[in-house]
Amino acid sequence: MKLNRRSTLVGAVALPFAPAARAEDYPTKPIKIIVPFAPGSATDIAARGLGAKLQGILKQPVIVDDKPGASGQLGASAVATSPADGYTLLMGTNSTNAANGALFKNLSYDPDKDFAPIARCVTGVNAVVINNDLPISSIAELIDYAKKNPGKLNYSEASSSQRLSAEIFNSLAGTRIERVPYKSSPQALGDVASGQVQVMFPDLPQAMTQIQAGRVRGLGVTGPTRTTVAPDLPAIAETVKGYSLVYWLAVFAPAATPKPIQKMLFDAVALAMKDTATVQTMTQGRMEAAVIGLDEFAAYVKTETKWWTESIKAAGIEPE
């Protein structure tokens, strides 16, 4: 596809870090997508699938760089402080760009001011999984066990969506499953399989890999209803009335990225996600393609930030 490369007067404006960013010259070198979570996470899988397709569309190499840590803060901060020239992007999430502001007192970036929303790509749900040795086979049994065995269940988490999934569950189900934070989701999920911790709410792509391998037991999903990609897993809401949590993965650029370059990036992402094979690679058949971009996406992020902030407060989570 030949992208629209019409220029504007951006060259006349001194932009932070990138005073010479010119839309008519973009792109002329490799583009980096920073993933703020570990290799093998849903965010990483989606970024690699998208990046592979963008290479052909933008005619430049697209490099995926994983920078996990601090619930996505390390990777998000790296993008927030990068030149605003379209060559460093973030595969952001509801964690990095909507929830973290309510979870941390001294966040290392400003989710509202430091990024230009480019395109939401996919939405998905988390699953609740447990160690195979637990005598539990349903959400109802998990609630009963947790209430009868206080202090015996811990949950691992490596992102705000995983943490909030567990804390909303605690709040609505009346349980007290204690939190154990991790740097990466694969490590957190591995420790559920080994029995170091007992419960986790990982994203569905990661969860299904371990469930199907027999390493953990799946009990349900966090969406308001069952998902078509894992119909045998009941929605937690079938047992816990009102329970619902859906996450999203999206492309962001540094805030001062010129508008024409933002538009070119959105056009490229939207075109990439019209390709069925690309969507399958990005979602593993366990997330849903859900593209929105630019102004619509910017409004969506504001709405989502409000929802996550209110939900975090309602769950009784104090910022760290």
What can you see in these coordinates?
The strands form two sheets. This protein has a six-stranded mixed beta sheet, sandwiched between helices. The protein has a five-stranded mixed beta sheet with strand order 7-6-8-5-9, with helices on both faces. The chain is an alpha/beta fold and 320 residues long. It has helices at residues 42-58, 73-80, 94-103, 139-148, 160-173, 185-194, 204-212, 259-272, 276-283, 294-314, and strands spanning 31-35, 62-66, 88-93, 115-125, 127-131, 154-157, 178-181, 199-200, 216-221, 246-254, 288-293. It is built from ten helices and eleven strands. The N and C termini lie far apart (46 Å). Residues 1-20 have low confidence and may be disordered.
Topology, element by element:
Elements: E1 31-35, H1 42-58, E2 62-66, H2 73-80, E3 88-93, H3 94-103, E4 115-125, E5 127-131, H4 139-148, E6 154-157, H5 160-173, E7 178-181, H6 185-194, E8 199-200, H7 204-212, E9 216-221, E10 246-254, H8 259-272, H9 276-283, E11 288-293, H10 294-314
Parallel strand pairs: 1-2, 1-3, 6-7, 6-8
Antiparallel strand pairs: 3-10, 4-10, 4-11, 5-8, 5-9
